[in-house]
Design a protein that fits this description.
This protein is mainly beta. It is built from eleven helices and 44 strands. It starts with a helix and ends with a strand. The chain binds (dicuprio-$l^{3}-sulfanyl)-sulfanyl-copper (RUQ) and dinuclear copper ion.
């Protein structure tokens, strides 16, 4: 029997392949390979599970992946776009880190302007530690329009437009000295949530660690998103001051808990480290207490309070609601959280919040209804040192479920089913939080951090695929030196038993979290909508080069070049300037054919701009050195691509 026949008669290939394999003796790996599935499996030493896994992940040429996984690239500073189930890397989006293929930060004015928005303390910052991507939502479901991602190291948030997969905005948070609880969105992307990690003085000033309790603070920023503009709106953004605890992760309430946000705070011990002076190291000092806090924040009410005169203070140009005001106005409560909490995940129906404790084998399930009652009844077990009411733990939980060692992050599959990563085992545990039962565990390799399930943090998870983001990949891939790739493991979770399908090495950065969206939800532009389009403003360019109007204009010592690109030439092909002139190239790709991208590189000028069909860019530089500098197209666009060239002649 041949594969083709199998398809025709409609017998599932896997069943037949399995039957072949059962009849086979152990393969030795070598030998001849024919087109027969059984023979290939035998020759390659593949088990029945291997063959079914291959069948579930293989996407033949011309077919497309069902899902897109948007992953952080960790301290690579970018966003990775991966197809699921094939796990093929489709794109690396330039975000915080210059990236020459996209011309991100290599000469085009618009990318310079976006990267310049990310400067902090007047210092250009050309990398980021990206952690948590957040897809924009409408009514609690991904809408496929925007993606946000945080930079933990230099507290910033980037906005990516999913029409053209380009970064449109970077905002900085001068109040924080690092962030971690971001980016997370509210159910209609009203706000993008960002919470500080390591406490520091909010005004950016110096204070000795001996004044930690008085001067150091945490914070949570609610960035207002203007969907029409596609930008975060600083004027409507506000901050709530928090005690000097470290914020871990956040999630927004939905359904009945809409209008509230949940974030865990750890290191409520306010440890300040100093192992070198005989103090407990941070890792011990921050784990001394049995309980830390889940912060429960009413962002809807906070937005109203922030708009009232006299309720906020200005710190570094930001509107900040002080802790005391937040308490008086009923905006902020704490719930005790067991042992080094990590991950705060709201269930799809918004009625419960699941929190893991890194040093506690349980997941704790909080009831939103009970939290509301406890708030209404003032059922408090006390306040923290800063006057924030602490809800009575026993009154607000639905229960605790023993999951295993080192539980971290939870994602959902619907019908009460959740998946939680177990860092220490390392495994993924499938469990039911309604029945409070563990269903199954699947070992993963090694040091799993986050999980990403298909639409797994929305109000309607798809429940078919799960990706385990593993920090270590020893023993998994051909050695490539002491720095190993991370390993994304794709798991089929559609059936009664989880099946590991695929190991996917990630050769850039240290990805933390990812979100997986149905690919057909996106409305992606295949070319820019018209010739002479400015991607940064997402509008026709103000002064683009247009076909037939190519020219060179001198305005004082500024030389404006209106240049077009089409297969296989630039017009003009000669640019002659005097040493010291400021050169402004208005460059338009006048192609309308899909994928007819050109590049524009200038010899020895650190310039390489990508211009996609229709795109117009402005490139500015000073011709400060006399000489002859070829400029050429860096995309292999046609048979005569090598001839797509010109000369920049700089006369002394
Ligand atoms: S969290 S270390 Cu996303 Cu597990 Cu950052
Ligand atoms: Cu255009 Cu090569």
């Amino acid at each position: 029997m041949r594969d083709r026949k199998l398809y025709r008669v409609g017998i599932p290939l896997a069943v037949v392949a399995g039957a072949f394999l059962l009849a086979m003796s152990c393969a030795d790996g070598g030998g001849q390979v024919s087109g027969d599935v059984g023979d290939i499996a035998q020759a390659r030493g593949l088990s029945q599970a291997d063959v079914t896994a291959a069948l579930k992940t293989y996407v033949p040429t011309g077919k497309m992946d069902e899902y897109l996984l948007f992953s952080s690239a960790g301290h690579g500073g970018q966003v990775l776009v991966i197809g699921v189930p094939s796990m093929r890397l489709l794109k690396v989006i330039g975000v915080f880190t210059p990236e020459p293929w996209q011309g991100w930060g290599y000469g085009a004015e618009d990318t310079h302007l976006v990267l310049a928005e990310g400067e902090m303390n007047n210092r250009p910052i050309t990398w980021a530690d990206t952690h948590h991507p957040a897809l924009s939502e409408t009514d609690g479901d991904y809408d496929g329009q925007y993606l946000f991602i945080n930079d933990k190291a230099n507290p910033r948030i980037a906005v990516i437009d999913l029409r053209d997969f380009e970064t449109k905005q970077i905002v900085t948070d001068p109040l924080m000295a690092s962030n971690h609880g971001g980016a997370f969105v509210t159910p209609n992307t009203e706000y993008v949530i960002e919470a500080a990690q390591y406490a520091a003085p909010l005004d950016g000033s110096y204070a000795p660690l001996s004044e930690y309790e008085e001067k150091y603070r945490g914070a949570i920023t609610f960035w207002k998103f203007d969907r029409d503009a596609g930008r975060l709106d600083l004027d409507q953004t506000f901050v709530i001051e928090l005690p000097p605890y470290w914020q871990d992760l956040s999630d927004a309430g939905k359904g009945p808990s809409f209008g509230w946000a949940f974030l865990n705070s750890f290191c409520s011990e306010m440890a300040t480290g100093g192992i070198e002076s005989g103090n407990p190291p941070f890792e011990a000092g921050c784990s001394a207490n049995d309980m830390d806090y889940l912060a429960i924040v009413n962002w809807q009410a906070a937005a109203e309070v922030a708009a009232q005169p006299g309720k906020t203070v200005q710190i570094q140009g930001r509107r900040v609601i002080p802790i005391q005001t937040a308490v008086e106005e009923g905006l902020l409560y704490f719930a005790p959280e067991p042992k080094s909490p990590h991950g705060a995940d709201v269930t799809p129906d918004g009625t419960q919040i699941i929190v893991s404790g890194k040093l506690d084998p349980h997941a704790t399930i909080y009831s939103w209804e009970k939290i509301q009652q406890a708030i209404a009844n003032q059922d408090f077990s006390g306040t923290d040192d800063f006057g924030i009411p602490i809800l009575n733990f026993d009154a607000i939980i639905d229960g605790q479920v023993e999951l295993g060692l080192g539980p971290l992050h939870t994602q959902f599959a619907g019908n009460g089913v959740a998946f939680t990563s177990l860092f220490l085992e390392p495994s993924v545990v499938k469990w039911n939080y309604e029945q409070m039962q563990v269903i199954e565990k699947l070992p993963v390799h090694y040091n799993v951090g986050h999980l990403a399930a298909a639409e797994g943090d929305t109000k309607s998870p798809d429940g078919n695929y799960l990706v385990s983001l593993n920090k270590w990949s020893l023993d998994r891939f051909t050695p490539v030196g002491p720095l190993l790739p991370q390993n994304f493991q794709l798991i089929d979770v559609a059936g009664p038993q989880m099946q590991l399908l695929y190991d996917s090495p990630i050769g850039i950065g240290e990805p933390h979290y990812a979100q997986m969206i149905k690919a057909d939800k996106l409305n992606v532009w295949q070319t820019y909508p018209e010739i002479g389009f400015d991607p940064r403003r997402m509008a026709p360019a103000e002064d683009p080069a247009m076909p037939g109007e190519e020219r060179i204009e001198r305005r004082g010592n500024e030389v404006h070049v209106y240049m077009t690109a089409i297969r296989s030439h630039f017009t003009p092909e000669h640019i002659e300037v005097n040493q010291g002139d400021n050169v402004v190239i208005h460059l338009t790709n006048v192609e309308q054919a899909l994928d007819a991208t050109h590049g524009f590189a200038v010899d020895k000028h650190n310039i390489n701009v990508s211009i996609e069909p229709g795109e117009s860019q402005v490139i500015r530089f000073t011709a400060d050195q006399a000489g002859v500098f070829p400029y050429y197209c860096t995309e292999f666009c046609s048979a005569l691509h090598l001839e797509m060239v010109g000369y920049l002649l700089v006369k002394p």
